[in-house]
Amino acid sequence: MQNLVTIRDLHFRFADKELLKGVDFTVRSRDHIGIIGRNGSGKSTLFRLIRRELTPAHGTISFATGLRLTHLAQLSETVHMSVYDYCLEAFREVLDLEARLQDIAKGLKEDPHSVSLLREYEQVFARFEHLDGYSIYSRVRGILNGLGFLEEDYDKNIAFLSGGEKRRLELARLLAEPCDLLLLDEPTNHLDLSAIHWLEGYLRNYSGAFLLITHDRYFLDSCVDRIFELENGKGVEYPGNYSDYVSLKRVRYEQEKREYIQAKRSYEAEMEKLRTFEARAARNQKFAARARDREKKIEKMDVPERPLWLDHSIRLDFGERRMSGEDVFQLIDLTMGFDDRILFEDLSLRLYRGERLAIIGDNGTGKTTLLHLLSGNKAPLRGWIHRGDQVDLGIYSQHQHHLSPSLTLIEQVNEAYPALEIGAIRHLLATFLFHTEEHHKLISALSGGEKARLSLLLLMLRKNNTLLLDEPTNHLDLPGKETLEEALLRYQGTLIVVSHDRYFVDRIAQRLLILKDGGQWELFEGTYKEWMASQETLEEKEQRPVKKPSRKAQQQKSPEKNKKIEELEERLLEEEEKLQQMELAFAEPSIYNEGHSVQEMMIKYEAQKTLVAELYEAWGKEQE
After folding, report:
1. Which residues contact 404 (CB under 8 A, 6 or more apart)?
2. In the CATH scheme, what is the homologous superfamily, with its name and number, of domain 327-534?
3. 345: part of which helix (H) or strand (E)?
């Protein structure tokens, strides 16, 4: 495979911090690589270096000749075109070829025997075919549909799209762009589950190379075949997907831990000997020489650095002050909606002590609203919610509205728990990775990840027996997510969580409540992977090819059914003939004459292909 990007001994400083320290990295054609690391480890900086937006302090980045590299670009506020046309612009070369074919056709209309025009037509048409120009319109529609755009959205002016819609359109344009290397930075942001599933399939089958930054571990498991981790300024590669990385890194950590402990013991033993010799040297000079020899030996010792992970893990442990009753929640015929729109209807379920329920579904299906109903902050349109005896609710909000922007970290914890001494608060903040100099930082100045850590600390101190968590993994880096998962798996209370993080849901939840459009819902007993397997089984049953019946079976069909089959077969022959004629027509210069719309013809061509496929499906059903 061809090397697309080669990075050697890369160093980069940001202010007084060295982000990258001698990184080596190679991207080859068809590589599907996940870039991971803690927040602030340099992932986005690496992308900017590859895009030539930053210059390294030291080292080299070399690129394959003619490399086509694309990345998510910010939509300009001055661009005024439709959603469809903006995405279609990704195929500018094909559109220019199409326009040139039309111009040549006009010239041939005036001079049908022009050798130069005929020769140019052959060359342009060959390039058009090489770029699969026929398919660009259907490809654009497929990408837009996959990312959640409806047919009625195609003509919308992009200037009037919401922030989330613009982000999805930028991603659609990026995926449509012909290129050798894609740079994807958090592509699942603003996507609902169905769009994420579609994107996974698209990238899994992507023939080019891509680098992917994401906190979505399930997405990494599905799409990548290599993991490149940035840790303490260095880069480490792991073969396989995210789950493979976790296993391999655990082995590496255990080895580093053993080496560090052994080296530390040897170092401390040598230091103890040195101190003994130095103490004796005060009384006997012959020990002075031995002390100097010991000191030289210590200087030559190769003592490994303390593994970074030993100092950078949140210490999180949820507990319960008291146990709840056996029944925690009972929902009976619960219905909720706003402005004549029903979110969910006649929802009934029972939740027992110690169960872990995840609420999942596309955006706008009412997941967070259901948490508000359970917490008592909202009332349903219809139905009842019964909360069990001694149920003590702890609530985590993804927006952290409970934090006071004008308070410092210490003041926020002290306000919530005034009985805690300042020394104890400082210790707690340190265990949640807040350095001493940050303890007087204002809440308003905290990043999303810092606010998430502080909110988890406050929730941990409450010791509730039932937790309602709304997107708790948002803003947490990968180690933070893993720490949260381990703490929740140890937790003996009841857990109800809303999350788009499928890896988190699969590890934590024993039951799923899936909220769907139109007020529909599904209660599934099992993990996320088990639910996905059940959905795939249903799809396979729907898509299973129909076996062609034997002649005897055909003869046993009713005359009406046989007549319908014959009519379908005749129609199929007609429509397939039309499809073949369309394909031949594209090679004729005359179709590009004035008055013809090639785009319309290509759309009709794709529609004809769909019609033929539908007729085959109908024919197969009649054969059953």
Report:
1. 411, 412, 415, 443
2. P-loop containing nucleotide triphosphate hydrolases (3.40.50.300)
3. strand 341-352
Residue indicated by tokens 């031995």:
290
- Give the closest residue to 6 by CA, choosing from 62, 44, 45: 62
In what helix (H) or strand (E) does residue 602 lie, and over which residues does it extend? helix 598-622
Partners of residue 342 on adjacent β-strands: 337
3-state helix/strand/coil string of 111-151: CCCCHHHHHHHHHHHHHHHHCCHHHHHHHHHHHHHHCCCCH
* Segment 579-584 long-range contacts (CB within 8 Å, at least 24 positions apart): 579/605, 579/608, 579/609, 579/612, 582/608
Residue 61 CB contacts under 8 Å (≥ 6 apart), including other chains: 5, 6, 7, 10, 49, 50
Question: Cα(302)–Cα(38) distance, rounded to whole angstroms?
Answer: 27
Token pair for residue 534?
């059940």
What is the value of pTM for the model shown?
0.76
pLDDT, one tens digit per residue, over 147-205 is: 999 999 999 999 888 888 999 999 999 999 999 999 999 998 888 888 999 999 999 99
Distance CA(357)–CA(497), nearest Å, equals 6
Alpha-carbon distances of 115 from 111, 119, 414, 587, 592, rounded to whole Å: 9, 6, 87, 17, 18
Q: Which residues of 76-86 are buried (b: 16+ CB within 10 A; e: fewer)?
A: eeeeeeebbeb
Q: Write out the H or E segment, with its range, that includes residue 90.
A: none
Task: Determine the residue type at 28.
Answer: R
* Helices and strands per DSSP (H, E), number in the chain: 20, 18
List of residues 6+ apart from 237 with CB closer than 8 A: 25, 226, 227, 228, 229
- The C-alpha atoms of residue 428 and residue 432 are separated, in whole angstroms, by 7
By C-alpha distance, which of 177, 157, 179 is closest to 166?
Answer: 157
Domain residue spans of the chain? 246-310, 327-534, 551-622
Tens-place pLDDT, residues 505-560 = 999 999 999 999 899 999 999 999 999 999 877 666 555 554 545 555 555 556 77
Q: Which two tokens mark 367?
A: 């997941």
Q: Report pLDDT digits (tens) over 248-293.
A: 988 888 888 788 888 888 888 878 877 887 777 777 777 777 777 7
In the predicted model, what is the mean pLDDT of residues 384-393? Answer: 95
CB atoms inside a 10 Å sphere around CB 183: 21
**Nearest by Cα to 39 from 449, 595, 557:** 449
- DSSP-derived letter for residue 250 is H
**Token pair 């968590």 in the structure block, residue:** 469
pLDDT of residue 592: 56
Residue whose C-alpha is closest to residue 479's, from 234, 232, 239: 232
